[in-house]
Amino acid sequence: MTKTADQGEKKKTLTLSKKLDVKKVVESDQVRQSFSHGRSKTVAVEVKRKRVAMPGDIVEEKPVEIPTPQAPQEQPAEEPSKGTISAGKHLTEEELTNRLKVVQDALKAGAMETEERTRREAEEAEWRRQMDELKSRQMEERSRKDTKQEPSPSEQPAEPDLLIPDLLPNKPDTHHADARPTPPPSKVIDDDEDEEGGSRRKSGGRGIEAKKLAAPVAKKDFEQPRKLNRQTITRALSGEEESRGRSLASLRRARQKQKQSMEQTEQLKVVREVIIPDTINVGELANRMAVRGADVIKALMKLGMMVTINQPIDADTAELLCSEFGHKFKRISESDIELGLRGEDDAGTDLVHRAPVVTVMGHVDHGKTSLLDALRRTDVVSGEAGGITQHIGAYQVTLKSGQKITFIDTPGHAAFTEMRARGANVTDIVVLVVAADDGIMEQTVEAIHHAKAAKVPMVVAINKMDKPDANPERVRSELLQHEVVLEEFGGEVLSVEVSAKKLLNLDLLEEKILLQAEVLDLKSNPNRSAEGVVIEAQIDKGRGTVATVLIQRGTLKVGDIFVAGSEWGRVRALVNDHGQKIEFATPAMPAEVLGFNGVPSAGDEFFVVETEARAREVAEFRQRRERDARAAASARNSMEQMMTQIAAGEVRELPLVIKSDVQGSLEAIQASLGKLSTNEVNIRVLHGGVGGINESDITLARASNGIVIGFNVRTNPQARELAKRDNVEIRYYSIIYDVIDDMKGMMSGMLTPTLREKFLGFVEIRQVFSISKVGKVAGCYVTEGLVKRDAKIRLLRDNVVIHEGALKSLKRFKDEVKEVKESYECGIVLENYNDIQEKDILECYEIESIARQI
Q: Do residues 575 and 582 lie in contact, with contact meaning Cβ atoms separated by under 8 Å?
């Protein structure tokens, strides 16, 4: 197949026969531009816009050429059908008709669009013409006024009003539904700026920016232009009001004035309830009162207190500030955490009878523990070291009638005053045991005083009635001297003559105790949380910390959470006085409690709490309080000791580390040793604890050159080896008065001995010899006593002491001797002294030291 010439021709597109002749037109005008300080300047402005075709303009139209499709060469040529335009032989008549119709519709639509655009541009041109006429009239009026009276620079307006908005003609609405959106307005370009926005500055020229006079565009479609504080043609023609913005100084003055007015305005105060602890910082108090910290500091300065925002103040000062600022206050204390530990008082209907608590007191070796053994059918006294009681014990005795009595046994030694006082405070009845053959002794009188201080009734048990020299009447008469009147003498104190060894009148003693308890009408509520007191505490190997607790009210059960002093814990087991495990302990029942996390102090109150968190909080608060108290006491003692040392010289100290088997014995040892301290020798207890001696105790004693004392405890192997290596002395004791005697002896050895002058004799100088290289030698005669070579001498002349010194040489004949007795002659040379004369008297004496005792 070959190609024809028609196939090489390009297809022609649809075009208009004539194009619209649009030319650019330049309009120019003059406006007055204002500057600062009243200056102004007339500036020429040109506005370039496109020329629009008016209805009277002639528009040349070019004929529309319709391309004729060409048929392929290989098909035979056919004659065109009737009524069709010349077309390819391959198009049918219907297809050509449709194509012609489409072309005609396109021409018709283009003509309509051109006509509509021409109409809008004509209306816009008419509106611009009217605006130009109105503007020219205003300019003429303005120029006439300027020629008549030229205003001064200060009176000249900053921006002239070129147009009055009320007189502006209505702008034609060019925003039809079928109209296309108008592009954003362009800048007015003067001679100093080209069409692309580039600045071409001439000498002395300045470009003026303005919006093009065009239809307004919706602000939501285009970005809001930045406002300028100068007048432009667009603002003048559109009538847009533009005022100069306020300066920063003006805004600042306005804010300050508003702030002052708000401060001067009295506002309603909110009365708050301010929580005030024992101490509070100034800033925290200001926050709680919702006031400024500076105001609180000013108020404190008026009170004469110069404080800072972070400085603490006391609760009384904070209360005064709250009242001054018009707030309510509520005082709280850190110790409020202990509130609620002791439950509410029991109702009378909940109370039931309980067993009486009886404390046995008296002098040492008067038979207190033997009497309890006889009542309990036990042998406790055989296990006591030295035959004396050194621990406080609690026991419960069940009588034949089924009634129960709780006994508390207290030591009788003088060192256990605290134990006796503690026993008297927790008891209902005191049994005063007095030996019939010994009478009233020191600790008996002390026990009477403890019973009177506790305001509890007494029952006197006159013991050892089996001895032949027993004299109960002597005991009754001696009790009268201490204001204890027995029933036999018309008093209210019951008395019983008993014998623990022969089991004499024990049932009568029990009857007297029950009678006294019936008079007291002892009751307690067992259906509540347990409360009690710690009688004794110790560390038991294998069981840990064990404390003897006397339940006063409520019932203690296994698993209860408790607080005792600064320690807390959970009850793991309960053991009665016979060593048997029990599930609960009722009021007036002593029991050993296992489960403490530390060793409590004897006499601490015992409370059962709801949760472990509450128990831990209370224990931590008490530990912190005790630590602060010890720190304050230590600081005070250190200051006192320092002042004492400055005044009286250096004070010797005996540092000790004391370990005991129970808390009560430790307390008694510390109190007894504390009484031994003097102004010259002081005992300083480095550490006191319950339990065996361990490595930390040895290390502490080594650091202070102290002694470790073990009372009924021993050292573990590791601590024993450490003590041998570091040469730390460990002393073991089982009887308390042995501890006191040994410590007293050690302190006595530390005391400075007393120096005493001992007279030896008188020597008379009868002749003085001068010997070269020796000096003066006195020929003497011993008139009284003797003279020793190492003795001190005084040289007396006319009974006046003129020299004190020592002998350098003592000779008899040519031999050096140690001493010369009375009625013998001798030669004496004084040390470093030669002014001797005949008839002088030498007094010989020596200094001896005498050991002191505490």
A: yes
Return d(Cα 776, Cα 793) in angstroms, integer.
Answer: 16
User: 117-132 as b/e, with b when 16 or more CB fall inside 10 Å?
Assistant: ebebbbebbebbeebe
599: phi then psi, degrees, rounded to nearest 5? -90, 115
Residue for token pair 């056919």 = 78
Q: Which two tokens stand for residue 6?
A: 């028609």
Amino acid at residue number 315:
A
Task: Check: CB of residue 558 under 8 Å from CB of residue 572.
Answer: yes
Give residue 571's pLDDT: 92
- C-alpha–C-alpha distance, residues 828 and 795, integer Å: 12
- Residue 352: phi, psi to the nearest 5? -130, 160
Nearest 10 degrees: Cα torsion 372, 377, 382, 386: 10
Dist CA 612 CA 609 (whole Å): 8
How many helices and strands in the chain, by DSSP H and E? Answer: 17, 35
Give the helix, strand, coil percentages of the chain, each rounded to 5: 30, 30, 40
Q: Say which residues have a Cβ less than 8 Å from residue 315's Cβ, sequence separation at least 6.
A: 276, 277, 278, 279, 280, 331
Contact 668, 615 (CB under 8 A): no
SS3 275: strand
Supply the pLDDT for residue 703.
81
Structure tokens at 540: 């038991």
* Distance between CA atoms of residues 302 and 21, nearest Å: 93
Question: CA nearest 495: which of 472, 517, 518?
Answer: 472
* Residues in the chain with pLDDT values less than 70: 1-29, 45-91, 146-245, 263-269, 378-391, 412-424, 632-651, 853-854
Helices 293-302 and 315-324: crossing angle in degrees, nearest 10, is: 110
∠ at Cα 759 (753, 760), nearest 5°?
120
| Type of residue at 255 | R
Contacts of 218 (CB under 8 A, 6+ apart): none
Provide the token pair at 91. Answer: 């198009």
Which residues have CB under 8 Å from 246's CB, separation 6+? none
CB-CB neighbours of 183 under 10 Å: 10
95 — phi, psi (to 5°)? -65, -40
Residues 6+ apart with CB under 8 A from 452: none
- Structural tokens at position 333: 């204390």
3-state class (DSSP) for residue 847: strand
> Per residue in 763-790, is it b (16+ CB within 10 Å) or e — as a string?
bbbeeeeeeeeeeebbebbbeebebbbe
What are the angstrom distances between the C-alpha of 804 and each of 428, 776, 786, 832?
73, 17, 18, 11
For the chain, the C-alpha Rg in angstroms (whole number) is: 61
The answer to whether 370 and 500 are in contact (CB under 8 A) is: yes
The candidate with the shortest Cα–Cα distance to 107, out of 12, 15, 13, is 15
CA angle 812/814/815 to nearest 5° reads: 65
* Beta bridge partners of residue 564, listed in sequence order: 567, 606
Q: Residue 672's pLDDT is what?
A: 80
Q: For strand 544-553 and strand 590-596, is the pairing parallel, antiparallel, or unpaired?
A: antiparallel
Please list the residues that pair with 199 across neighbouring strands: 193
Residue among 550, 553, 597, 555 at smallest CA distance from 576: 550
Distance CA 729, CA 737 (A): 20
Q: 377: Cβ–Cβ under 8 A, 6 or more apart, which residues?
A: none
Calculate the alpha carbon distances from 25 to 22, 184, 204, 310, 383 in Å: 10, 20, 27, 79, 134
Helix (H, G, I), strand (E, B) or coil at 389: coil
Token pair listed for 722: 């450490």
Q: Are 91 and 80 in contact (CB under 8 A)?
A: no
Q: What tokens were used for 149? A: 């009276």
Determine contact, residues 797/837, Cβ cutoff 8 Å: yes
Residue among 797, 799, 798 at smallest CA distance from 833: 797
Cα angle at 754 between 749 and 760, to 5 degrees?
130
Q: Is there a contact between 685 and 701 (Cβ–Cβ < 8 Å)? A: no
